[in-house]
Task: structure prediction
Amino acid sequence: MIGVENHVIWVVMFIRRTKISSSSSGEAHYTFRLVASKRIGRKVQQKTLLNLGANFSLSRELWPQLCSRIDEITTGQLTFDNNQSEEVEQEAQHLAARLIAKRSESEEVLKKKTTDYQEVDVASLELVRPRSIGVEHVGLEAIKLLNLPEIFEEVGFNKAQRDVAVASIIARMAEPGSESATWQWLNEQSGIGELLGVDFESMSAMRLYRVSDLLVRHRQKIENALFSNISDLFSLTTTVTLYDLTNTFFEGTVTDNDKAQRGHSKEKRSDCPLVTLGLVLDGSGFVRGSKMFEGNISEA
Result:
């Protein structure tokens, strides 16, 4: 809360939750915004400071603490008795950084109207929260061209699940790795969230795991629809020329996965449980379908 002498102006920061849609099952979906309410005399004005997206997951009872801490950070107030939880502090630092960056952009637009040269100590410059965006942009445009988000919607994915699925696919294209590594890449390295309008830094790893389960559950429908779109896009003749097998390994025991078996690892990790992936390819090299097999299956 910011006050001005004589109590003429008061600014209050708060979180607003807005219902955006409901699925066919009746499930409601919400988006969240950081809003400032300003009172000047008897008039009240409200302004959206940041769009927090649909994946903002901080508990509602912690919102006042979060807003208060953001206010302290952005106004440069010193806090000698900071009893905020680590969760609130981390979220406040993240949102305050976004808010400061946004304000800097607005100030820069105003400064461009006049010429004012200044000397800068380059040794004092610091790169804050760098993110990659090139491969993400190319991947997202290819995914849109193939109508993959529409395919996800047809099999029952809601908006939040579609965004996570798209981001997960792009992550595997740009930085192949485990689900844990994918979640870390989305959190710390990628700018895909800016393209999708999703704050992946506040997304839990469990949300990514659940969407991965949905992709597996609807695999056949997704693959069939995707290959149909590819065939239409490139005017392909329907053929099957190759069936190939490869495998990958788990670093854990994977006791709950019946397909995880010891076998010959193509990555020289025969000390780990394996699963085998079978791919059906058409004459142009596009994947028509896939299936998972036990790790010890023979390729003969």
